[in-house]
Amino acid sequence: MAPKQPKGEYIETDTGNKVSRRSLISGTQNIILGGRTVIQADVIIRGDLTRTLPSNPTTSGSAPAASNHVAVALGRYCFISTGSILRPPAKLHRGVYSCLPLKIGDNVFVGPGCIIEAASIGNNVWIGKGAMLGKMAIVKDGVRILEGAVVPAGMVVGVGSVVAGKPARVVGEVGVGWEGFNGRELWKNTTG
Question: Does the N terminus or the C terminus of the chain have fewer Cβ atoms within 10 A?
């Protein structure tokens, strides 16, 4: 009998995603990873928080039924650093607490210890260590969110902005030639 191969830190999927064995991912059937995404240790992704819809009036029972919508969608070459939390934004609408999808574009870096509850994050976005993105915030393409920034709920961050502060506000624009985050290099260097 051949000896067992030692288990590495990361599980690699068919599409090249690398997911740490020490991350906590709930509701995997509601999470889409676009390919070549890295999820480090101690990351929490809440795919179990999905949109609830009222039951069909033609069926019996009045409990809301869970739908098969995607809760979290990550694009290609995303990098989610240690200790970050990704959960879909939620709101109370007509007495029903409902979670909406969290959509993250390509080449997005999420620094260590971030809490993300935004509605959407565009492509080529860099989010610094310890940043918090409030419920239903929208971050457009090419944005840089500095370390420790707290983006308030519902804020829309324009294309190419630099955001900082508590509460966060636009403090500048990214320079000409800044192409955002290149996730391909980090993906290549992540082993395990």
Answer: N
Residue 44: both structure tokens together: 């929490």
Find the DSSP H helices in 35-182.
none
The number of residues making up the chain comes to 192
CA dihedral sign of residues 154, 109, 104, 87: negative
Share of the chain above pLDDT 90, in %: 64
Token couple for 191: 């082993």
Contact 183, 76 (CB under 8 A): yes
Query: Among all chains, which residue has been given the structure tokens 């990214």?
Result: 174
What pLDDT, in 10s, does the model give residues 3-50?
555 578 899 999 999 999 999 999 999 999 998 999 999 999 998 888
pLDDT in tens, 107-137: 999 999 999 999 999 999 999 999 999 999 9
Contact indicator for 166, 150 with CB cutoff of 8 Å: yes
Residue 112 near residue 147, CB atoms below 8 Å: no
C-alpha–C-alpha distance, residues 19 and 11, integer Å: 5
- Return the H-helix or E-strand segment holding 132: strand 132-133
Pick from 6, 15, 14, 18: nearest CA to 190: 18
**pLDDT confidence band for 54 (50 / 70 / 90):** low
68: left (phi over 0), alpha (psi -120 to 50) or beta: alpha
